[in-house]
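task queued by scheduler; priority normal; single chain, no ligands, no partner chains; default sampling; output format set to structure tokens
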Amino acid sequence: MSTAVASRTSGRRWWWFGWGLVAVPALVTAGVFVPPYLVGGTTVPGLDRITPGYYTSLVIHAVPAGIALITGPWQFVPKLRTRFPVLHRVTGRVYLVAVVAASLAAVYSAAVTKSGFALQVAFFVLIVAWLFTAAKAYRTIRRGEVQLHRIWMIRNYALTFAAVTLRLYQLPLIALMNSVTWLEYREVYTVSAWLSLLGNVLVAEYFIVQRFLAPLARRRKVAAGEA
């Protein structure tokens, strides 16, 4: 096996490993955290049932958000795009519609949440960014700008994946509550929300630079040298 072939094989393995690190937690999060909202939310800790419409908005948000979590990873599988383009387009439309529906439903719950202004700001930043990147992803593919479409989809799904990382960040912080008496769940949730938002954006931008921009810069440098 040549060095080039071995490198491509290793690259594919690493790609699938990375894809699994995204897809599996997304499926688990959707499967574990969405159903409780559909059966009354009795197992959801600290759920506000006093504010009118709050629980309903969470249900309306949770369902399409779960659909986006599940369908999103499959949009990045190259073989699915090339062998089943119709399926790719259909699932892509389902994903984008789910993102829009989940975003709009989250507007009300973010506006009336009693968890504080800092959390409201985090959620509204996420909602605006979620809708903006979805619009850009749709607009670029309609123009036939496939590369830009993929970049905007990466950014958009990074925001969708905040539902996963939010809960991952909560795990150590909730454990810390046992030893830090002044730390309340409200602060844990707010910190986790901001970390999931900013962390996912940074990871997505790093991946975009390494996957798309760095190779482009290298090709331009080689072309300039040849000229």
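post-processing summary
- The domain at 3-226 is CATH 1.20.120 (Four Helix Bundle (Hemerythrin (Met), subunit A)).
- Residues 185-226 form the longest helix (42 residues).
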